DNA sequence: CTCGTTTTGTTCTCCTGTTCACAAACTCCT
DNA sequence: AGGAGTTTGTGAACAGGAGAACAAAACGAG
């Protein structure tokens, strides 16, 4: 009753998947503090959600808690890491070594969470002379070889917007099936390829909208 | 029937607010290409959503289209920009001038979309000697003065996780009411302060989960 | 061994967001 | 001027996620 657990959760809601990494981080923090056991209430507070939601989320993974006691921090941490898939290392390539590419290459949070940057690529020959974060920048044309060599399935796009679609196409052609895109604009990819977009200016614009509402709310209650 | 339009949209759903900047960017692209008019179908394609959702989203702002014709690109662009609040300039401070802070300070997408970086702050005196993106890095202690001087209401946190909560507290104390946080972990802020979080490693972990599913899906269909 | 206490796992209800489908409104052609 | 053809705006059904509330299960005291 251990090998290939059949109840290993068929379809976890997308909203839950997005929160699992948050729980994982909270558990790591708790573990570092020496906490061996925690209740759903404690963990929920540490993760910034409410406890009912936390318990429901965890219930999609299985029954890893003990009623009347709580959750074993190390055990739950392992189970979530396994569910997400970060017990193994994921090789990652970063394309576009400008300011943002530099920052990403140097970001320690990747390495510490199961992601290993195996290559930095840039189309500009000038940049290919550089060494960033101990990795030398190579030509974008090496993409195919690197993907095959390291078994890369995740790519990060940190190029200007104009180059992003072309880079994505070549990534897909090389065999990459998950893309994290920092370039603004819409990426078109074939079925089966996952894209997640991070757009810094969109985040600020959302804040600006709410900020504007706060300002006008003060103006209009004079009626 | 023009001044202070009373139908100026009371409560726009959060999901819609998050998409308005995407529409805005798509409209700017269309305008640059010389397109004067577009249908909801065209704009939806350019923005990467379906047309029904687009029309419903726009309907929360008002009736800015013409049936049988479509939308005037420039007019709609202005209306959305006004609704978001990016027709005016928003002063922004960035705290934490490490790798990521550098990248953010140099990011041209902020300036071009109505955000002006008025100060770069860092607690480390060594960094305060630097000049980044034409702005000299100043002491974090100058925060209060700068916020008052420039009327800053939006702050960006690009510090290590351990400093983030303290920075947030001081931002709030200085009068900042919207925070964009790049540091991992949960930020606690008072009622009325908006926080948006961007966590790079969480995005990768979500991709890893789906990647893992793809891999095991191939393994298990042998039953 | 039994009872009370604690905390999980789950069910039910509510609410937000998405999609469909169509009437209203506009243009163009005859 | 009238009718055919488009395209918007929106009402209504549908799906998915959030939160409250409670039953089931474990522990510990006596």
What's this, in brief?
With 223 residues, chain A is of the alpha/beta class. The first copy, chain A, has nine helices and ten strands.
List the helices and strands and how they pair.
The structure is a homodimer of 223-residue chains.
Chain A: H1 14-32, E1 37-38, H2 40-47, H3 51-61, E2 65-66, E3 70-72, H4 73-84, E4 90-95, H5 99-106, H6 108-112, E5 115-122, E6 131-132, E7 135-139, H7 143-150, E8 154-157, H8 161-174, E9 178-181, E10 194-197, H9 200-220
Parallel strand pairs in A: 4-5, 4-8, 5-7, 8-9, 9-10
Antiparallel strand pairs in A: 1-3, 2-3, 6-7
Helix pairs in contact in A: 1-2, 1-4, 2-3, 7-8
Chain A binds a DNA duplex (30 and 30 nucleotides) through residues 13-16, 39-41, 50, 52-53, 55-56, 58-59, 63, 65-71.
pLDDT under 50 segments of chain A (min length 5)?
1-9
Radius of gyration of chain A: 21 Å
Largest sheet of chain A: 7 strands, mixed
Secondary-structure-based class of chain A equals alpha/beta
Assign the CATH superfamily of the largest domain in chain A. Answer: NAD(P)-binding Rossmann-like Domain
Oligomer state equals homodimer
Number of helices of chain A: 9
Count of discrete domains of chain A: 2
Residues in helices of chain A, as a percent range = 40-55%
CATH-derived architecture of the largest domain in chain A: 3-Layer(aba) Sandwich
List the secondary-structure elements of chain A in sequence, H or E: HEHHEEHEHHEEEHEHEEH
General form of chain A: globular
CATH topology of the largest domain in chain A: Rossmann fold
CATH uppermost class of the largest domain in chain A: Alpha Beta
What pair of chains forms the biggest interface? A-B, 59 and 59 residues
Could you give the count of β-strands of chain A?
A: 10
Summarize model confidence as the mean pLDDT of chain A: 93
Distance separating the two termini of chain A:
69 Å
């Amino acid at each position: 009753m251990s090998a290939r657990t059949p109840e290993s959760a068929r379809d976890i809601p997308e909203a839950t998947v997005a929160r699992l990494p948050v729980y994982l981080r909270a558990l790591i923090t708790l573990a570092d503090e020496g906490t061996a056991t925690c209740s759903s209430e404690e963990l929920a507070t540490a993760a910034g959600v409410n406890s009912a939601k936390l318990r429901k989320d965890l219930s999609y993974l299985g029954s890893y808690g003990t009623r009347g006691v709580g959750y074993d921090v190390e055990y739950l941490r392992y189970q979530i890491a396994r569910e997400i898939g970060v017990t193994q290392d994921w090789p990652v390539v970063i394309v576009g070594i400008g300011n943002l590419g530099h920052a990403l290459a140097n970001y320690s949070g990747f390495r510490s969470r199961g992601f290993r940057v195996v290559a930095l690529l840039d189309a500009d020959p000038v940049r290919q002379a550089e060494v960033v974060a101990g990795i030398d920048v190579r030509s974008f044309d090496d993409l195919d070889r690197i993907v095959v060599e390291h078994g890369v399935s995740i790519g990060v796009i940190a190029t200007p917007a104009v180059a992003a679609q072309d880079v994505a196409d070549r990534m897909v052609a090389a065999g990459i099936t998950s893309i994290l895109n920092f370039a603004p604009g819409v990426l078109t990819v074939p079925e089966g390829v996952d894209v997640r977009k991070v757009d810094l200016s969109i985040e600020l614009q959302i804040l600006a909208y709410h900020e504007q509402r706060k300002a006008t709310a003060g103006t209009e209650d004079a009626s």
